[in-house]
Design a protein that fits this description.
about 30% strand; Chitinase A, domain 3; 3 domains; mainly beta; Thrombin, subunit H
């Protein structure tokens, strides 16, 4: 009869403490994932309610404004914008703003020029003599033009000044040198 006591006690201890040897080795039920999320080996939750990360494809709605409140773009009234975070499709500051957001979250960020379209560069404003340009063109301020640079690359530009003898064009992006404020709504992580 005594020889069955030790195995019975050993079985009770294993059931109580698990194979790890202490109560701390047994995971608590409160650390278990909810039915809508799974846990990757790193412990990061996945699923619709997890934070967005680099490499995720997301859909967002946004409104972009300048410091004076002028709206320069918005996705509202169209399909949400879809892109891959860190995929080079967006300005760097926009990518960074979406990292860590969860589905349904709304945030407002101000993106400085160095994280958007860069500083305004005076060397990208170029003046041409009319006699060096194709004849018969009726140039107007605001006209889009294409400039071909050494190596054949085409750069978009805008006519900013027209005189009797010259045409001045600006190859800076229209938002270069400006702080951009975005209200971003993360619609979903795909």
């Amino acid at each position: 009869m005594k020889r069955y006591i030790i195995p019975s006690i050993l079985i009770a201890v294993i059931l109580l403490y698990g194979c790890g040897g202490s109560p701390e080795a047994t995971p608590a039920l409160t650390n278990m994932p909810t039915p809508t999320q799974t846990v990757e080996p790193t412990g990061t939750p996945t699923g619709p309610d997890r934070p967005a990360e680099v490499g995720d494809t997301v859909r967002v709605d946004y409104t972009g404004t300048l410091d004076d409140g002028t709206q320069f773009d918005s996705s509202f009234g169209r399909e949400p914008l879809q892109f891959t975070i860190g995929g080079g499709q967006m300005i760097p500051g926009f990518d960074q703003a979406v990292i860590g957001m969860k589905r349904g979250e709304v945030k407002t960020v101000v993106i400085p020029p160095d994280e958007a379209y860069g500083p305004y560069r005076e060397e990208l404003v170029v003046e041409f003599d009319r006699e060096d340009l194709p004849a018969g063109q009726d140039w107007k301020v605001g006209d889009p033009v294409s400039l071909q640079v050494t190596g054949g690359q085409i750069i978009p530009a805008t006519v900013i000044e027209v005189t009797e003898s010259t045409i001045k064009v600006d190859a800076n992006h229209r938002l270069a040198g400006k702080n951009l404020t975005f209200e971003i709504h993360l619609v979903e992580i795909l």
